[in-house]
Amino acid sequence: MRQAQKAATRQRVLDAARNLFETLGYEETTVRAIAREAGVAVGSVFTTFASKSEILSQVMADRLDDLYAELDRVVPCLRGSTADRLRSIFAIHFNFETRRTRLFLAHIAAAYDWTRSPAAMPYGRNPRLKQIIFDCLAEGAARGDVDLGVDLQEAVDLLMAAYAWTYRLAAWEGADANAMSAVMDRQIGLISDGLRPRGAASPLI
């Protein structure tokens, strides 16, 4: 009975937090506001979560199961160059995250919260997304369309930075998934081709 009550309280906290992060943003949402919205005491929130950043991390983790189930199904079927496969992977992410764009913007914002607890998993610390991109690049290297001299982890970081920065278009202009995917497609092309003049050495990716 006690465990069921704790589980119910935890779920109320997560539901309330998800709504507040999406409507108010990361900075404006407080643990006190989450407790009030959930109808529980502030102490009950801290019984389960050490910090606001941990609450957001769990909110995002709970909803990402559906995304990664889709990626597990689609990624093995992707064809074309490494750049084309990366475009498809990020298009899937845009289509998923724009279902709750403001929530994802809060997730990105939390990455720059230097007071967050070590257990929090903001954008950029998600090992699943990084591994998917890394594996795509590694497969490209094995197939010969990614330069073997490229530091794949640096390429992952660059692509993830471009992906997060593209969400400025949603925050500033209300851009949808298609508009942001089009921008990301061009950025992937630029990263793939590099800045060297045409006719120089082959692209990095």
Put the structure in a nutshell:
The protein is an all-alpha fold. It folds into 2 domains: 1-49, Arc Repressor Mutant, subunit A (Orthogonal Bundle), CATH 1.10.10; 58-193, Tetracycline Repressor, domain 2, CATH 1.10.357.10. The chain has helices spanning 2-24, 31-38, 42-48, 52-74, 82-97, 101-110, 127-143, 152-166, 168-173, 177-193.
Describe this structure in words.
By secondary structure, the protein is mainly alpha-helical. The protein has 2 domains: 1-49, Homeodomain-like (Arc Repressor Mutant, subunit A, Orthogonal Bundle), CATH 1.10.10; 58-193, Tetracycline Repressor, domain 2 (Orthogonal Bundle), CATH 1.10.357.10. The protein is built from 10 helices and no strands. It has helices at 2-24, 31-38, 42-48, 52-74, 82-97, 101-110, 127-143, 152-166, 168-173, 177-193. It is elongated. The model has no long low-confidence stretch (mean pLDDT 91).
Proportion of residues in β-strands:
under 5%
CATH topology label of the largest domain? Tetracycline Repressor, domain 2
> Which CATH architecture of the largest domain?
Orthogonal Bundle
Which runs of at least 5 residues are low in confidence (pLDDT < 50)? Answer: none
Taken from the alpha-carbon principal axes, the silhouette is: elongated
**Tally of distinct domains:** 2
Order of helices and strands: HHHHHHHHHH
What do the pLDDT scores average to? 91
Could you tell me how far the N terminus lies from the C terminus, measured between alpha carbons in angstroms?
56 Å
Number of strands: 0
User: What is the rounded Rg?
Assistant: 19 Å
Looking at CATH, the homologous superfamily of the largest domain is Tetracycline Repressor, domain 2
Query: Total number of helical segments?
Result: 10
Structural class: mainly alpha
CATH domain class of the largest domain: Mainly Alpha
- Indicate the percent of residues in helices: 55-70%
